[in-house]
Amino acid sequence: MLVHDYLIRSAERFPEKTALVHGGRRTSYSELLSLASSVSSWLRHAGVEKGDRVAILNDDPREYISSYFGILMAGGIVVALNTDTSARTLGAQISGCGVSAAITQAKFMGYLRDLGKGVTSLKSVAASGLKPSDAGDEGYALSDLKDAFVFPPGTPARSARADLAQVIYTSGTTGGSSAVTLRHSNLAANTASIIEYLKLGEGDSVMAVLPFFYSYGNSVMLTHIAAGGRLVVNQNFLYPNLILDQMAAEEVTGFSGVPSTYAILLNRSALRRYKFPALRYMTQAGGAMPPRLAREMKSVFPDVDFYVMYGQTEASARLSYLEPHELLRKAGSVGKAIPGVLLEVLDEGGGPVGPGETGEIVASGENIMAGYWREPEKTARVLKNGKLWTGDLARVDEEGFIYIVSRKSDIIKCGSHRIHPAEIEEVLAEHAAVHESAVIGVEDEILGEALKALVVLKTGYQCSRNELLQHLKALLPSYKVPQHIDFIPELPKTSSGKIKRALLKTPSAPGSPGSIGQRSQKEAG
Amino acid sequence: MHDKIREFIFENFLFNAEGSALDNDASFLETGIIDSTGMLELVNWIQETYGFEVDDTELVPENLDSVNRLAIYIDRKTQAATRVSG
Question: Any CB–CB contact under 8 A between A269 and chain B?
């Protein structure tokens, strides 16, 4: 099974059925396939060939989904990009994997025009909302696609299961931003497995609040298109009550969220006043959720199955889940491997650890990525003999249930985002007053982890918190701008000069933010 | 009232950026000035600053989605509180 076959088959089986609900607009499977076919036709017209990378920078779900499948039908590789971005991030991503075409919206054209001479790969852009007169030589107004390039559906390029289907940018386990490459077979294996354990079928519909450009949202999208289900999409979580209204009105059967989604619903919405008779299940992934929150959700909706899950982008999304009936008995566990995946907890020598002992989670299965885009050394550090060394440390109880203990890497899981501290520290270092800095994750009731920057200023320099925030905001996407900034006199380091991040997280430790944070802001102010 | 709300938004979400214009009618939802966790900060600030509880059912765009809407909402709530206590 190739990934775009999901849409083709569902459109054959349920042509008139609603595939997507967004902003009051309903799109049927046949319409979605027709749009995808147009995108595919345009890409082939634009010279995109098999294996070429095509970016999606688009927050309209109808355009996003049709572009996603259209790219695959043309034989291209989807590079779905976070729309909360900056010109610098976008430039690195587009040139990083040699994106040759992009499908976007007029509001993002400014970013693409600003990319400059450093980005030479990008040749063709289609944008919705763009006047044809503004499109230029290489641009094309997306609204015209459908009329301009109508090819009969079902003529996709000849891809094979082993061909790459998608590149997802994530903060990888080995540091920095990583471009995870996934084959058709990886995504198809994971999609089939998730459909199996969530028991998804054509009668299912999900309230999709997570962005599709991350692997969790991507799996929600793929599983529902594959199952012939319905996606009710509202990816703006500013007013959760609007989401809850829509869940009730559309009678959704499923809901997927990250820990912060559930924290917001429980603490800052009228959740307890709603009834969802059609709701069958909820899923949670994207970082550890305090068992208290899972218990609270279960007490509010005792008849709804609550699935705690665990995964990585490197595994196409999913690696394990906890059976809903074990939620209370095995609180805090991420369960056991999903169908088709083998999970082992191994010591550094590669041997299995005993019950209760801590080791690294190592995964194998058809869902494991091909590697990081053109980074063989980085890939070799995590893929060994076809197995993925996740960097997550865990213990296993005597019944085989896995409990995550900590992450080996420094990645901070803030809301639905994974952020490597180096991405922020590098930008801080560009400020004239900054000597050095360390960014850590601090416990946050809503976000899971909030970003905290500990900044050492150069001798004789002064700089305020707001000046630094303005600097960061100009160069980074807003979700990477730290919630907290403390100025400290020096960073604790090992003899080899490596920052002792664990020590920075300990409030009572010497040199830690807790002991010096208050005075430093004033001094630096 | 408007100035105080604007000051909070500039201080916390726009970081006092020079030249940042904020129309009092601009929708937070459409402009993306505030994200979901920012909205929680805003609600906490309203509760602490104006001394009333924001009910969960009041967390809707009609009350919160622009400087002007916030001002009307806060005004209505503080007046209601005054009437109750008076």
Answer: yes
